[in-house]
Write a structure and sequence with these properties.
63% strand, six-stranded antiparallel barrel, Phage_SPP1_head-tail_adaptor, Head-tail adaptor protein, mainly beta, 0% helix, SSP1_head-tail_sf
Length: 112
């Protein structure tokens, strides 16, 4: 396996939930740190109707491997931030049997 070019700096963020006092909760995002990644767009589609159209792009984001439970290992429900762009992590898997790299399958939504 060729070594991927991990040249894109991304912030890894995790959701923090706090009670809102009305039986629900409010979500805020906390930065866990920075990871360097390779980003490959996989597929794209547009969904919604009229003024509510949303562009959805699926990404494969490759980062350095980390064992399960390590805070540097992305998890589903977390997200990557690249400036104003957000990539919600949907699944994470080792890129190969050695586990040197992880493939994070993420969704980017852009309101149009």
């Amino acid at each position: 396996m060729a070594v991927p070019d991990l040249s894109t700096r991304l912030a890894l963020e995790t959701p923090d939930r706090a009670a809102d006092g009305l039986g629900g909760f409010a979500v805020s995002w906390r930065r866990l740190g920075w990871l360097y990644a390779r980003m490959d767009a996989r597929s794209a589609r547009e969904t919604g109707t009229g003024a509510g159209m949303i562009s959805v792009v699926q990404w494969r984001i490759t980062v350095r491997g980390a064992p399960v439970g390590d805070p540097r290992r992305p998890r589903p429900g977390q997200r990557f931030r690249h400036g104003p762009r957000l990539f919600v992590v949907e699944a994470v898997a080792e890129s190969d049997a050695t586990g040197r790299f992880l493939d994070c399958f993420a969704r980017e939504e852009d309101l149009t």
